[in-house]
């Protein structure tokens, strides 16, 4: 099992969600985050004082899935989140030791 | 100044200040409805309209609206009171004309600011300010002349008030139908927001909407009861009717929601109160309290349904200026034809035994305002879009107009949200 984590632009989230739903992904966790990478921040001005705000708002999607599904999900997120401009985000995949469903106590694939 | 004139003056000064309070009220009301990334821009559109329209009104707007008629009751002499020339009279023994003039100017402010709700989240601020000035001169001032400028000795006013004899106590035509039709035209010309009908565009802060509705309601007493232009019985009736119609509008909207959607919502309560207030604006000085209750119910129920039309027809009237102000304005203006009472005004409506005569006049006034405002606004917005550009770039619209246009964010709720970098003045400082 793997966990796919994607950090994307907030306004692409609806498009990404729709694409994943078509693919059959039934659930995910979403967190509002901020960070920076190659897309530098922006300047805000308050009564003439400029603030260089490094952090850019993003959303982080987390999906736990079985190994054979990973490539397709990553590809779907990439296609639906991309605008072609710097700041589209990142996707990474990491191994998961085990998954448990709180309500039933099921574990492994049955818990996804 | 005799005691009556002093009382009238005191009330109109108070009323003018109350109408001004509707501007921040509207800023809250609209600001809560947009997404968090564009709330400051929405509020700035309202405050911007306040500043621009007031200045333009003093320079030339008042003359066009209330100067001697130039031709056919269509508009007044634009040069007559240039820069409020001739209105300064510190020894005035009657209600000072300069007070009437600025009271009317605040009506213009609210009317223009209302249009902002139809084109939220997607417009350039500079172009909006230009629009405010142009629209005040070419649309608001003429319509105000038609309906608000009564002829008197040595003065010829507008056609609706003096030839047609339509009844509009505080602005069902000039304010509500005018802003609503303009909102529809502007929304159609500028097009939908990115993702309209597909992405959720929920109000980001309903507590702001409720505060805004409350402030609007409070200010509306100045708008409506102030339109009696005196501290008298008519003002008192208008005051009571304004309160009543807001209440029945609120209840009717909630009733529709409860039946249709299963829940009575806070957003519905705020919207219903405003719908009732919109509809009672033209009629508060023409109907009895019973009539006011009926008008509020009609407006609350009809507007609750009308706000869904934009999804069916695909025009992105973002904050329902059409569904509430155009539709509510039509309801109030037309119902005068049925519910006018000679206990309050000069004529009886259809249901009070006065025949259909007044109803016909109301329909003509409503229709003329709608067609004129829609056509003129569509032309103004189209020209400004082609010359200055009225919409922001798609990228900027996605990331949010607050940051792009104003370089500010409304809410800074996270410890790290400052994001590094000390403040510095001017460009070229340390990065």
From TrEMBL, chain A:
Which keywords describe this protein according to UniProt? Nucleotide-binding, Phosphoprotein, Transcription, Transcription regulation
Extract the SUPFAM superfamilies matched here: GlnB-like
Q: Name one GO biological process term.
A: regulation of nitrogen utilization
Q: Does the keyword Translocase apply?
A: no
Transmembrane ranges, per UniProt, are none
The entry sums up its family as follows: Belongs to the P(II) protein family.
What do we know about how this protein assembles, alone or with others? Homotrimer.
Its protein name is Nitrogen regulatory protein P-II
User: What is the native source organism of this protein?
Assistant: Nocardioides humilatus
Q: Identify the taxonomic lineage of the organism of origin.
A: Bacteria, Bacillati, Actinomycetota, Actinomycetes, Propionibacteriales
From TrEMBL, chain B:
Q: Where in the cell is it found?
A: Cell membrane; Membrane
Where does this protein have coiled-coil stretches? none
Q: Which GO terms describe its molecular function?
A: ammonium channel activity
**Domain Ammonium transporter AmtB-like residues, every copy:** 10-411
Please list every transmembrane segment annotated in the UniProt record, as residue ranges: 12-31, 43-65, 98-120, 127-148, 168-191, 203-223, 235-256, 263-281, 287-309, 321-342, 362-384
- What InterPro entries has UniProt attached to this entry? Ammonium/urea_transptr (IPR029020), Ammonium_transpt (IPR001905), Ammonium_transpt_CS (IPR018047), NH4_transpt_AmtB-like_dom (IPR024041)
Gene Ontology cellular component list = plasma membrane
Q: How does it sit in the membrane?
A: Multi-pass membrane protein
**Principal location listed in the UniProt entry:** membrane
Keywords, comma-separated and alphabetical? Ammonia transport, Membrane, Transmembrane, Transmembrane helix, Transport
Q: Which family does it belong to?
A: Belongs to the ammonia transporter channel (TC 1.A.11.2) family.
Q: Can you name this protein?
A: Ammonium transporter
